[in-house]
Amino acid sequence: MRHVVNLLLLAVVVTLGLVAMELVTRKLPMAQRLGWNLVPPLSDRIAEVSDKTDVERVVVVGDSFAEWMDTSGGNFVRVAERRMRDQGRKVEFVNMGQAGTGMAEYYRNLVDHAAKLKPDTVILALYVGNDLVAFPGGLPKPDEARRVLPTAQQDRSWRKTLKQSILLNLLYRQAKVHVPWLRSGFTDGIVEYLRTHHRKDHDYVRQRLAKLDPQLVQEAESDSINGWDLATALFSPDYYGNLADADAASPEGSAALASLADLGTLVRYAKTLAPQVMVVLIPPSPWAGERYHDYFRRLGYGQLGPTQTEPVILTRVKAALDQENTPYLDLLPALRDSSDAAYMDRDIHFNTIGQELAGRQLARALGTP
């Protein structure tokens, strides 16, 4: 009997210790990188929306910038919601952000879910860094969207469940640095996909990799940084510069310009759902200041775009929104003016300072000081 009691006590102590370590780990700066792991699938979030009719409902669509740290309340969407509530506004934000998506998925999500949510405002969180890609043939009519457009994958596997623990996730990431067979192979797969797309041989890849910071190469291969950042640098080193210039002669510029038609379709449909529509323009970090350039230089990027003047593509996007009589919030000036870094180190997303800054700007744009 004594042994049983001792085992139970040990189990309780170990459990409490793990819970305490989990709570502490979530407060550490490194946990910011894992902020999307705690966000439930979109279908679960929609199911939890209240039936209240006496609140101002704001529906948000976007990618990882919208989803990041949403459940923990650290996302800029939740920052804006809190500020508005603190000022007496009865608001409810429904965050439909999903990592790895673009305008086609935003449109599909609005078609699938937004009408029954009866929003007062629809916000399109547009990450200018990679959202400006046209859907082949253009976005379809709403009644054809479910047949034509993709839906974002919703991971409900045991791996997704384990990732709800920030502590286990961080330990797993560290293990992957030293144990290659634990790695997902995501970066290698993306590099191979882009190699084929750009019609390059394996020697080209080896030569390009040899010029990059070996630490970042290892971190990309072990999933510690986004493999897309590395892969894009290998095959499109001037990606951010070409995108900023809206150069129709470059793949990035031509794709961005072609996508403006889809943006118009998306905005017009959103206006059928809510009396107010706003587009939040989220710029890539290289345009926000040279302090963010080190990460991209170490990955082998070349032209990164302007840090003082307005990128041409932003001017073009704003002109397209003006034609649609649609208000927008351009975050670039505030991000450039910030005395503190607003993006995470070795990542393209906002840190907690950037989230707060963007949230304050959004609340102000929605009429709350």
How is this structure best described in words?
With 369 residues, this protein is of the alpha/beta class. It folds into two domains: 2-31; 36-155 and 240-365, SGNH hydrolase (Rossmann fold, 3-Layer(aba) Sandwich). It is 51% helix and 8% strand. The chain has 18 helices and five strands. The chain has helices at 2-27, 42-47, 64-67, 76-86, 103-117, 145-148, 158-162, 166-178, 186-197, 202-210, 214-221, 227-235, 239-245, 251-273, 293-298, 312-323, 332-337, 352-365, and strands at residues 56-61, 91-95, 121-127, 276-282, 328-330. The chain has a five-stranded parallel beta sheet, sandwiched between helices. Helix 5 (103-117) runs parallel beside helix 14 and helix 13 (239-245) packs across helix 14. The longest helix has 26 residues, at 2-27. The radius of gyration is 22 Å and the shape is globular. The N and C termini lie far apart (64 Å). The mean pLDDT is 86.
Please outline the helices and strands.
Blueprint: H1 2-27, H2 42-47, E1 56-61, H3 64-67, H4 76-86, E2 91-95, H5 103-117, E3 121-127, H6 145-148, H7 158-162, H8 166-178, H9 186-197, H10 202-210, H11 214-221, H12 227-235, H13 239-245, H14 251-273, E4 276-282, H15 293-298, H16 312-323, E5 328-330, H17 332-337, H18 352-365
Parallel strand pairs: 1-2, 1-3, 3-4, 4-5
Protein traits:
369 residues, 2 domains, five-stranded parallel sheet, globular
What's the short version?
With 369 residues, the protein is of the alpha/beta class. The protein contains 18 helices and 5 strands.
